[in-house]
Amino acid sequence: MAVVPLETLAFLLFALLTVGASVGVVLARDVWHSALLLGVALLSVAVHYVMLRAEFLAVIQVLVYVGGVLVLITFAVMLVRRDSEIDMEVTG
């Protein structure tokens, strides 16, 4: 039986996490859950950069995409989202 290196197992784990979170972004019905899964996918891509010994790209990935784009999406969701109970009180 062949011994699988620890780096290969870590790569497979984060590859499955990246693919799973990316599929979750597309299939999630709630925009907030989709944004959170996008954050998981982007962070796991940063882990892939660290595994490739490209630490600068990993830091830029976290700062620009996770820190910037995801925060912008979060604020947009919080500002645009309407509470259904408030809508029912206004119309009913």
Explain how this protein is built.
- With 92 residues, this protein is an all-alpha fold.
- It has helices spanning 6-27, 31-51, 55-80, 84-91.
- The chain is elongated.
- The model has no long low-confidence stretch (mean pLDDT 87).
- The chain has four helices and no strands.
Quick recap:
The chain has 92 residues and is mainly α.
The number of distinct helices, counting runs of at least 4 residues, comes to 4
- Could you estimate the helical fraction of the residues in percent? over 70%
- What would you call the shape? elongated
Mean pLDDT figure: 87
Q: How does the major sheet shape up?
A: none
The number of distinct β-strands equals 0
Strand content: under 5%
Low-pLDDT windows of residues? none
Distance between the termini: 68 Å
**Rg over alpha carbons:** 18 Å
Q: What is the string of helix and strand elements?
A: HHHH
User: What structural category do the secondary elements indicate?
Assistant: mainly alpha
